[in-house]
Amino acid sequence: MLIYALKRLRSLVLSLLVASVVIFAVIEVVPGDPAAFMLGINAQEDTIAALREELGLNLSVYQRYFNWVGGLLSGDFGISYTYRSPVAEIVTERLWVSLPLAAYALSLTVLLAFPAGILAASRRGSVTDLSVMGFTQLGVAIPNFWFAMLMVLAFAINLRWFSAGGFPGWDEGFWISMKSLTLPAIALALPQASILARVMRSSLLDTLGEDYVRTCRAKGLSKAQALWRHALRNALIPVLTIIGLQFSFLLAGAIIIENVFFLPGLGRLVFQSISQRDLIVVESVVMLLVFAVILVNFAVDIAYALVDPRLRRGR
Amino acid sequence: MMKAISRSMFAASMMLTAGAAFAANTDVTVGLQLEPPHLDPTSAAAGAIDQVLYSNVFEGLTRFGPDGSVNPGLAESWTISDDGLSYTFKLRAGVKFHDGSDFEATDVVFSLDRARAEDSVNAQKALFAGIASVEALDAGTVKVTLSDANGSFLFNMAWGDAVMVAPESIDDIKSNPVGTGAFRFDSWSRGDKIELARNEDYWGTPARIEAATFKFISDPTAAFAAMMAEDVDVFYSYPAPENLMAFEADARFTILSGSTEGETILAMNNKQAPFDNAKVRAAVSYAIDRNAIIDGAMFGFGTPIGTHFAPHNPDYVDLTGNSAYDPEKARALLAEAGLADGFKTTLKLPPPSYARRGGEIIAAQLRAVGIETEISNLEWAQWLEQVFRGYDYGLTIVSHTEPMDIGIYARPEYYFQYDNADFQTLIADLAVEADPGKRSGMLKQAQTVISEDYVNAYLFQLAMVSVVKTDLKGIWENAPTQAIDLTSVYWAD
Amino acid sequence: MSLLDIQKLSLSIHGTPILDNVSLSLRPGEILGVIGESGSGKSMTAFATMQLLPDGANASGKILLQGQDLLTTSEPELCAIRGKDIGMVFQEPMTALNPLQSIGKQVAETLRIHDRSLSRGEAMRRAANTLERCGLPGDQFPLSRYPFELSGGQRQRVVIAMAIALQPKLLIADEPTTALDVTTQAQILVLLKRLVSEDGMALMMITHDLAVVSGMADRICIMRAGKVIEEGAAGTLITESKHPYTRALFEASSHQPDRIQGAHNVPLLQVRNVVRDYALPRKGLFAKPGRHRAVNDVSFELHHGESLGLVGESGCGKSTLTRAILGLEEVQGGEILLDGEPVFAANQPNHKVRRKMQVVFQDPYGSFNPRHKVARLIAEPFHLLETQPRGAEREALIDEALESVGLTPVDKHKYIHEFSGGQRQRIAIARALIIKPKLIILDEAVSALDVSIRAQILDLLADLSARFGLTYLFISHDLSVVRAITDRVLVMQDGEIVEQGETGAVFDAPAHAFTRTLIAAAPRLPDIPAHIGDTHGA
Amino acid sequence: MAEKSILRLALSSRNLIIGLALSLVFVIAGLLSFLWTPYDVTMLDIPSRFQTPSAAHWLGTDHFGRDILSMIMVGARTSIAVALVAVGIGMGLGVPLGLAAAARKDSLLDDLIMRGNDLVFAFPSLLIAILITAVFGPSALNAIIAIGVFNIPVFARLVRGAALSLWTLDYVLSARVAGKGAARISFEHILPNVANLLIVQGTIQFSLGILAEASLSYVGLGAQPPIPSWGRMLADSQTMISLAPHMALFPGLAIVLTVLGLNLAGDGLRDLFDPKLRKART
């Protein structure tokens, strides 16, 4: 188990290193000078040069890369060009929206997908199965931002059950904050739940066709018992992979949804930072997201080991 | 005169309602499309900084009134030497910064020296270029000496980039601004809102409301929904004119439509063929139907202009006749220029909807006379790089929101690259001319020159449309500068 | 009274008829051998008895277990019967266990599912007892073991433990030893026999291999194409049956092709001190990867015209050796010469040598690219030639190869899925023959075939060898086949050749202990009276 | 029981038929738009803006008075072209990489390819697409590249996985015995046998490509005006959703139906190709 974990850890570190080079390289070539952007159209050349110096943009590429990576390692993400405050601070603030949103959406995803997938698989070919498949087919096809727009139209503008967006902040109360995350979470969760339900169903159908399920039936287990006690746990392995991917997607892929609901989350931060050429924020957030994805994959790998004794015993 | 009357009427209405205490409505939430990147108005071009902080938190020596006039600010009064080179400001007594320190002449020296220093990152450094020295005569008097006479020096000092800051609090100014205004900075949750609280020790008339929240809502749909749900009390410079009909029909809301300093123009690259030919530029101007653009892109909000000057300015000349919509004439002019079959060019559009929507309409109008445009939608950073600094464009649409900026036509390196020696002389003369009558004449002449040279196609003056709860009073209708002055805002019954 | 009485059972799945009026019965404590080739419906009979039929199955008739018709019994009642009154053992032990659950839990589950009041600890204790009875004592095989930590034979013991934990009256074993090596097979058969007699269970033993049941069954039932062909007491049925299919089946099982001994003493293939190592996955993070020696210092010679058998259990290194001989992988020590030339020279497979040998693989289904037509499939070895035949010459060679294996030239325009397993193996042989090699390696070439087909292919091989002077290297785990077709035999164990010699001599008087075990473990058919055994062909 | 299975068979082919029919409607609409659209999509007619569906404008008009049906037809062309080429990029690069990785299993090459794939997967795709377009400027071409890049590992993985199991089959061994090299085997034996999988996955990636293109052009990074694209139509409609809901409804439906059609077709194809399901049926 330890060796397995260490091996995974090694590839994690390696991936992060390569990712940092790639991210830095990509962002280095983004056209547009952050200093010129900040000072606007009436700025004078010497003012821009002064600002470039202040931001450290006049250093060599290598110096900036090592400064950046060195900073990341020591927890210092640098100072945002535009906000002029520590990137770590800004990012932490945004994480308090993005993480709960991702977690909320993921919970909804799982809560919707598991029952639907299990029900469909256990009643293969039935009306239930067909309707689950139909709904999920539709759910996969709907662009989430469009769905979000329709929900805003229905629930915020017409019915006024929810506010159309914004985030009051956790100090305003847990339920108020959760309420403001509800529509975005649903918009994010619907397509993901559809995907997950389909994966759950097909994975479960696969395991239900396995020999050991037949063995269980021969022992006297009913179909339902065989499903719950044996097939489900085995079916979870591919499902876990998808959940891992979905969590990282929900964390990073909420850009558009965060924009639709004007939530102050990470996605919107990156989007704004790109257009404001706040490159250090872009670099750090993308790196953070990549780190999160890799970390989640690592966690999924470890979760596999917990589920699967073959990995646990180091085979 | 009108100003004085309206001011006293305001004062009267304030007196009348002052007695009634409002338990519920003592704060106001202002919706804004853009969030300030940081909170130092003296080191960035972002208008959002001024919108939140100007006159609310920070004040300058002079200040803009709602009509664009220049009024005394932290300087109670001033005297100007006869040669127009030295200004002696008498500062208000008893002014304190929010951190409790006194506002004194040394702070003025610090603020102005900082703005004009070698390593200054002030976005409007040109405002301070003419200052030769700043000295504190005593704690309450400052003398500013100019190298050349400058008729607009007091006007310059009213800008948000010229507000007074203190050396004690300058280090944290970007996240914790400390000024002298009627409100002090309270908190900022980035990406969402900034909160201000009333400054109880304000030197002047204290604000009527106790707290103000600026909420940043960039998405127009969200803005619409937030307004409809009454999450915000006023949406300043409402971004989606298409929704205004809905607000107009709703008694809860009032629409304030005022003028801005934003001349929206279709800029042409005067050094790039074929726009180096005045006939081609004229053809472009004639090919454009301003009313269709105002209607189609701005849903009717906006005033057509024929030159680069704000129509609400007394010196404005209506020159729209110089380029009235006439596609036939446009085609004829193109033929004269040897381009009877039309030509292809680029149309680079920055993000605001006036540019994006206006661009699509203009592209269609130009196509009708044979000019094919390739549209590319750019972000501001790209626009600055490619168009503004790189001159890599044929056409672009942008709104010039700086007040009284006709002088940019005298700068041959300015992005549309208009190089006219006579015009440059005219502007140079204007800068040193103090006589109001002569100044007016020269301004009118300047407007005519650039209109008849068809430097750019002048489209319309950007309207400032704000949606306000009907009960909320005291919001500025016009935008002489990018500021949301909340000092005299109050709730009616 | 019968314990199990199947009456006129007919079964169709998605409209395809599977069983047709099958009737058979089993008395308490009796062992019934159900024998049939693939597609005979023998397994479906078992699944019908368990009422574990696939979706879309439609059964009629009666399946009476102690007088209760299982076809009309409700699903909850069936659940109570399965595992308690009827236990079942399956063919594939590698997949029959839940990989994520310990063996103790899986065995205990049988107990707890039928007796809710049983405590967890008590169930585990009884599971341990049951496993011990099945030859997995707790000190060597703790309950916490997971299936992946056990070998195939051990897993089959766990499956058996699950099936007999509640001492059911009837045990159904569906090809329980087919996937196992002969020595393991023998042990499992012994185990089953012991358990049946200890618990007084009836056993329905389903198999394709006559020899497996001939030694243990009280009665035998022969099935073919969904019908019961013949049923009777084991002894009399084997020796006295007059039913042509039964006779043909028995004949084929012990088929001995007519062979001409044509060996010269000129070596064709020389294998000298061959060593083949594999890298193992790293054990530790910084540990050097370990090495596994799959073939250890193997030497032998194969003469022109000879048929040499290579026998060993799975994992003994015979497949690795085959690949090395074919020049597919480089060896780490020693040399392999064909006609005096190395098969692998200068880190490159030697094409000149390779065209002198071809191979026929086990799986008639996986041996052909399903997207190519037969002509293209069997022409593939032309690639080895310096000048590839084209046009009419090529067609002629293809036709000739097909005809030589008993197919027709028309077949070259078909796709492989249009052929049966036996025909596919003929095509595989045609592919091997097409470039007229000297040596053909037959890698378990008849192991996947039904006995009757196997007999035909063995005849074909004998015939081809005589006609073309072919040399065979015959790799198999099946001793009876090796005995039938080879001149000499090599016995391989753990990467080494432990015994070699004339086939007859080795079989009659094995010298090495392993060979002795192997031969003793191989199930044998009783001798069939010669006067009946004369009938040829099928 | 038997009827049920026939029903299911019919149903699976019904999936395919409905799916293909739906996708074809939009393909044909897109192709037709080269020759004819009810109205010229580049002509603005501001006085007749925000019209709800009528006989003259079947799907109404937008904020510039353009005919929405015509725009959806031309938008189909953009969406389909972008997604198709992106799938092409993914297949064109991913398939050879996957084949190479499988042919040299556990080699350095395999390791490099798979690590590279993992890395691409680790990047938040939409974010990188936004970055790519920020670097090279928004255009349909850059949208194609941004989407295509993320298709590469999908196909590489798929092909590698399938190829690995094919490499263990005896017919590949036979080909090796016949002296064929890895490249030749990959193209002769492996590729044709993963073609089914590629078609199915290609259909799915195609539909994902349509969604991705819609997302990108929704944030303004896809095809530039005046070329209509579904995502930008939705973006334009967003502020007018309470004023003219039909502007948001129809382009959204076009996306949903196209993606739905492609997914159904993909499912149908998979059912048709999957030997496991097929065996269960016969």
Name the features.
heterotetramer; A: mainly alpha; MetI-like fold; C: 538 residues; alpha/beta; six-stranded mixed beta sheet; disordered C terminus
Please tell me the overall pLDDT of chain B.
86
Radius of gyration of chain B: 23 Å
- How many strands, which pairing sense, and closed or not: the largest β-sheet of chain C? 6 strands, mixed
The major pleated sheet of chain B works out as: 11 strands, mixed
Q: Quote the distance from N terminus to C terminus of chain B.
A: 29 Å
Taking pLDDT < 50 over at least 5 consecutive residues as the criterion, the unreliable ranges of chain C are: 530-538
Structural class of chain B: alpha+beta
- Taking all Cα atoms into account, the compactness measure Rg of chain C is 25 Å
CATH homologous superfamily caption of the largest domain in chain B:
Dipeptide-binding Protein, Domain 3
Q: Work out the oligomeric state of the chains in this entry.
A: heterotetramer
Q: State the helical fraction of chain C.
A: 25-40%
Report strand % of chain C: 25-35%
Mean pLDDT of chain C: 86
Please describe what this structure looks like.
- The complex is a heterotetramer of chains A (315), B (493), C (538) and D (282).
- With 315 residues, chain A is mainly alpha-helical.
- Chain A is built from 14 helices and no strands.
- Chain A has a domain at 95-266 and 307-312: Orthogonal Bundle (MetI-like fold).
- Chain A is 78% helix and 0% strand.
- The model of chain A has no long low-confidence stretch (mean pLDDT 83).
- In chain C, the strands form five sheets. Chain C has a six-stranded mixed β-sheet. Chain C has a six-stranded mixed β-sheet with strand order 18-19-20-13-21-22, with helices on both faces. In chain C, strands 2-1-4-5 form a four-stranded antiparallel β-sheet, with helices on one face.
- The model of chain C is unreliable at 530-538 (pLDDT under 50).
- The longest helix of chain C is centred in the middle third of the chain and has 18 residues, at 182-199.
- Chain D is mostly helical.
- Chain D has a single domain (2-281), classed as Orthogonal Bundle (MetI-like fold).
- In chain D, helix 2 (68-103) packs antiparallel against helix 7 (182-218).
- The longest helix of chain D is centred in the C-terminal third of the chain and has 37 residues, at 182-218.
- At the A-D interface, helix 1, helix 6, helix 7, helix 10 and helix 11 of A face helix 1, helix 3, helix 4, helix 7 and helix 8 of D.
Summary?
The complex is a heterotetramer of chains A (315), B (493), C (538) and D (282). With 493 residues, chain B is an alpha+beta fold.
Fold topology:
The complex is a heterotetramer of chains A (315), B (493), C (538) and D (282).
Chain B: H1 2-18, E1 27-32, H2 47-53, E2 62-64, E3 70-72, E4 75-80, E5 86-91, H3 105-116, E6 131-138, E7 141-146, H4 153-157, E8 183-189, E9 193-198, E10 211-216, H5 220-228, E11 234-235, H6 244-248, E12 253-268, H7 278-287, H8 290-298, E13 303-304, H9 327-336, E14 343-349, H10 353-368, E15 371-377, H11 380-389, E16 395-400, H12 421-432, H13 436-452, E17 457-469, E18 472-473, E19 490-491
Parallel strand pairs in B: 1-10, 1-11, 14-15, 14-16
Antiparallel strand pairs in B: 2-3, 4-5, 5-7, 6-7, 8-9, 9-10, 11-17, 12-16, 12-17, 13-17, 18-19
Helix pairs in contact in B: 7-9, 8-10, 12-13
Chain C: E1 4-13, E2 16-26, E3 31-36, H1 42-50, E4 57-65, E5 68-69, H2 75-81, E6 86-89, H3 103-114, H4 120-133, H5 152-164, E7 170-174, H6 182-199, E8 202-207, H7 210-214, E9 219-224, E10 227-233, H8 234-240, H9 244-253, E11 267-279, E12 291-303, E13 307-311, H10 318-325, E14 333-338, E15 341-342, E16 344-345, E17 348-349, H11 351-354, E18 357-360, H12 374-378, H13 391-404, H14 421-433, E19 439-443, H15 451-468, E20 471-476, H16 479-485, E21 488-493, E22 496-502, H17 503-508, H18 513-521, H19 530-533
Parallel strand pairs in C: 3-8, 3-9, 6-7, 7-8, 13-20, 13-21, 18-19, 19-20
Antiparallel strand pairs in C: 1-2, 1-4, 4-5, 9-10, 11-12, 11-14, 14-15, 16-17, 21-22
Chain D: H1 2-35, H2 68-103, H3 108-122, H4 125-136, H5 140-167, H6 170-177, H7 182-218, H8 230-238, H9 245-273, H10 275-281
Helix pairs in contact in D: 1-2, 1-9, 2-3, 2-5, 2-7, 2-9, 3-5, 4-5, 5-7, 6-7, 7-8, 7-9, 8-9
